[in-house]
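Field log, afternoon session.

UNIT: design team B
ACTIVITY: writing a sequence onto a fixed backbone
BACKBONE:
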């Protein structure tokens, strides 16, 4: 799953991913992804928010860290 997350968040936005932390809990999966720039993070969110990882499932809910 980590490789899939890296592929999705680097290939579709054409940006360098600095760091990925992947977590699995009783609710599901979470990933913390850090980019080189704020603009890359904003572009990623606008491009991928609400899209599915697989056809018909695993919808992305992208939020910025607080």
């Amino acid at each position: 799953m980590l490789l899939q997350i890296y592929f999705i968040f680097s290939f579709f936005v054409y940006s360098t991913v600095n760091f990925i932390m992947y977590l699995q809990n009783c609710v599901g999966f979470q990933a913390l992804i850090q980019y080189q720039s704020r603009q890359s993070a904003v572009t990623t969110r606008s491009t991928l928010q609400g899209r599915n990882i697989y056809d018909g499932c695993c919808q992305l809910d992208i939020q910025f860290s607080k």
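LOG NOTE: The first helix runs from residue 2 to 11.
NEXT ACTIVITY: expression trials, pending approval
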